[in-house]
Amino acid sequence: MEYIDALDFKSRELNQLIAEKLKSGQEVTILNPHSMHNIATGLSVQGKIIVRGSTGFYAGGFLEGPTLVVEGNAGWYVGDNMMDGELLVTKNTGCNAGTYFYGGTMVIYGNTGSRAGYGMKGGTIIVCGSAGRWSGQMTLGGKLVILGKVGKQIGESMYKGVILVRDKEAGENLGQNVFLDKITEPEMQELAGLFEQYEIKADPEEFKAIRPLATGRHSYVLFEPRLNPELSR
């Protein structure tokens, strides 16, 4: 285990040092983060990073491979553009958690702000608490799981993917272009495995699925313009 005091570095220097330690096979613990922005961004090596305290914006952005554990809160855009690996936040996060999430797994054990999973394309995001409005907006793929209350316009303008919710009032907060559906047996089995792996106490049978409509405003008709040059003379 390698301990690094974040007070001694700027974020770029800190991330370079983290990458070096991980490449040498060491597990890294960050002390005194004091909500520093950009902690553990752009890391594409295997290993484990533990942050003893809260982080600022963009923690774990573009993460590709390692496991990042934030023992505290995380600011806006945690897990932004994450590609692979694990990102665990023991408390709450700000808005836009998992924006353009592409792969891996992020677990938020507390609450999250608005637009969680905005534009996500793959991977799994689990929110053990409540989520603000516009969760899963513009989702293109992947799985967003919310155990607590959901805000308004959830799933607004989804294209693909699924949002699994336990909130019994979720149907009253749906965005455009989505509908509330029953959860499938394979989805329940996958949830059961995730809940066991991440020590989450929840019953998969209590969940419902929010899915994009097969038709709606995202159905397009291609047309070829008919030009009449004579009319412009």
Notes on the structure:
The protein is α/β, with parallel strands linked by helices and 233 residues long. The protein has one domain: Glutamate synthase, alpha subunit, C-terminal domain (Pectate Lyase C-like, 3 Solenoid). Helix content is 11%, strand content 22%. The chain is built from two helices and eleven strands, in the order E-H-E-E-E-E-E-E-E-E-E-H-E. It has an eleven-stranded mixed β-sheet, with helices on one face. The longest helix has 13 residues. It starts with a strand and ends in a 21-residue tail after the last strand. The mean pLDDT is 94. It comes from Desulfoscipio gibsoniae DSM 7213. InterPro entries: Glu_synth_asu_C, Glu_synth_asu_C_sf. GO terms for molecular function: oxidoreductase activity. This is Glutamate synthase family protein.
Order of helices and strands: EHEEEEEEEEEHE
Mean pLDDT: 94
Helix segment tally: 2
Classify the helix fraction into a percent range: 10-25%
Radius of gyration: 20 Å
CATH topology: Pectate Lyase C-like
State the separation between the terminal residues, measured CA to CA: 79 Å
**Text of the CATH class:** Mainly Beta
Number of strands: 11
CATH architecture call: 3 Solenoid
Shape: globular
Uncertain stretches: none
Tell me the CATH superfamily.
Glutamate synthase, alpha subunit, C-terminal domain
Multimeric organization: single chain
Main pleated sheet: 11 strands, mixed
**What's the arrangement of strands in the largest beta sheet?**
1-2-3-4-5-6-7-8-9-11-10
Question: Which structural class is indicated by helix and strand composition?
Answer: alpha/beta
* Count of spatially separate domains: 1
Proportion of residues in extended strands = 15-25%
GO molecular function: oxidoreductase activity
Protein name: Glutamate synthase family protein
Organism: Desulfoscipio gibsoniae DSM 7213
